[in-house]
Design brief:
With 453 residues, this protein is of the alpha+beta class. It has twelve helices and eleven strands. Strands 1, 2, 3, 4, 5, 6, 7, 8, 9, 10 and 11 form an eleven-stranded mixed sheet that branches.
Length: 453
């Protein structure tokens, strides 16, 4: 349920806005990005193809529309802005693909997607999309070595731009911490960060420190602050998730500007804090957890160090969205869309559907966040009218959540999706099905209200 302009934007035409909204709903219902499934029939497929092909339907407007809603939901909250990059690889499916360059393997056709999502620091719930960059590479030979190129000419700028976008959109948030993995360990990223944004980055470079020491050896002389448990998510290579016990150490470090850096305006030194989380009695075989986290935040004690580790771990919410978008979920790689421009738009539709579904799943256990994080306030009367029809006589069959909260809305949608109150909490599939039913009923409610005016 997007704004009156539509879930993805207005695009200069109320009909295109409606198609965009319906497309997001269909993706949520089917869990697919294959046009044949989304269209239901030939006419529906043609409508989607026309929408994706329309010059007025742009990725920029989609991102701006989604970011505006997310920014409104973040007002007054402590926010973690997680950013990461994923590759959409069409290996074995390259036939007739147009406008795509080489993927990460340098051979297969593909493109790259770099979203920034907002996460509530306190509840750890996904609030929505803040930014997204989509690009494809060229296989043209570049004569200038990477070290000789300006930072602005490198793909690495996406990390700096992501932090800038988070600071811009989240001006009304109580605080903003941008979290990213080792690829974003860039000196200029710390040097150029917006004043309103703090960073937590997993260190990749064993940097030189002021005084001649090296970064990775610094923690060896620090006292152990505490031991805590960290949930390690399962990896893409099939390694199972587990709970690791880690020893925490923390201290200030002064890192030096790289000798071969291409950012002449950067200061010669930067003062940061490093937190080391080293697993105790790990499984070995290269699986022992060791995180060295660089942050612009001050850490004074064990509780502060543990909180930095917790905030960094929220980056895995992005991995959940990627899994939902790719092979484990909507299978973007299987779509029959061939043109790069339309593929990029479809990827953003998938991102919108994945984040919205995740919001509803997050809320099922009693989130106090308002329902207007997901729907417009104008839709609340429809939800109020629908809710009593889904309740039973027993206390277990009543909606237990605060009126107009996201948990209250999530309960309604889960019931519409076929969830039985007596069984386990609803999953994404149930939420997707319930959302479509809710959207249809809310639309009918709105039409009835207009006819009575």
């Amino acid at each position: 349920m997007g704004s009156r302009e539509g879930a993805l934007g207005g695009f200069g035409d109320v009909r295109r806005a409606a198609v965009g909204t319906r497309l997001v709903e269909r993706v949520m219902e089917t869990g697919s990005l294959v046009i044949r499934k989304l269209g239901c029939n030939r006419a529906g497929e043609i409508a989607i193809h026309r929408f994706l092909s329309a010059p007025s339907v742009t990725c920029g407007e989609m991102v701006a529309t989604l970011a505006a809603r997310t920014a409104a939901a973040c007002t007054g909250r402590r926010i973690v802005a997680a950013q990461d990059t994923t590759e959409i690889n069409f290996a074995g499916r390259e036939e007739r693909r147009r406008g795509l360059g080489p993927a990460g393997d340098g051979v297969s056709a593909g493109f790259f997607l770099h979203p920034v999502i907002a996460i509530d620091s306190d509840t750890e719930a996904v609030l929505g999309l803040l930014d997204a960059r989509i690009w494809t590479r060229t296989d043209e030979f570049v004569a200038v070595p990477a070290r000789a190129r300006a930072l602005e000419d490198k793909e690495s700028m996406r990390w700096l731009d992501g932090a800038v976008q988070a600071g811009t959109h989240l001006a009304q948030a109580a605080s903003v911490v941008v979290v990213a993995d080792r690829e974003s360990d860039i000196y200029a990223g710390f040097a150029r960060r917006p004043a309103s944004v703090d960073l937590i980055v997993r260190a990749a470079q064993d940097r030189a420190l002021h005084g001649g020491a090296r970064l990775f050896a610094a923690a060896a002389g620090w006292p152990e602050l505490a031991r805590t448990e960290v949930c390690v998510a399962p990896s893409r290579t099939g390694v199972r998730g587990r709970v690791a016990t880690v020893a925490l150490r923390a201290g200030p470090v002064v890192i030096c500007r790289p000798r071969h850096g291409r950012d002449p305006g950067a200061p010669p030194q930067l003062k940061l804090t490093m937190i080391e989380a080293r697993e105790v009695d790990g499984p070995g075989d290269g699986q022992t957890l060791l995180w060295r986290l660089l942050t612009t935040l001050d850490v004074a004690d064990a509780a502060g160090a543990a909180d930095i580790v917790r905030l960094y771990r929220l980056r895995w919410r992005m991995e959940e969205i990627f899994r939902s978008l790719k092979v484990d979920g909507m299978r973007l790689e299987d779509t029959q869309v061939q043109d790069a421009g339309r593929l990029f738009k479809l990827a953003l539709v998938g991102l919108a559907a994945a984040t919205r579904t995740m919001q509803l799943v997050d809320a099922r256990d009693g989130s106090p966040r308002p329902a207007t994080d997901v729907i417009d306030a104008s839709v609340l009367p429809a939800a109020e009218a629908i809710a009593p029809t889904l309740e039973g006589r027993t206390a277990r069959q009543q909606n237990p959540h605060l009126l107009h909260s996201l948990a209250w809305l999530s309960w309604i949608i889960a019931r519409l999706g076929g969830w039985n109150c007596y069984y386990k909490p609803p999953g994404p599939k149930t939420m997707r099905a319930g959302w479509v039913q809710f959207a249809a009923m809310a639309a009918g409610f709105a039409l009835a209200a207009q006819s009575n005016v």
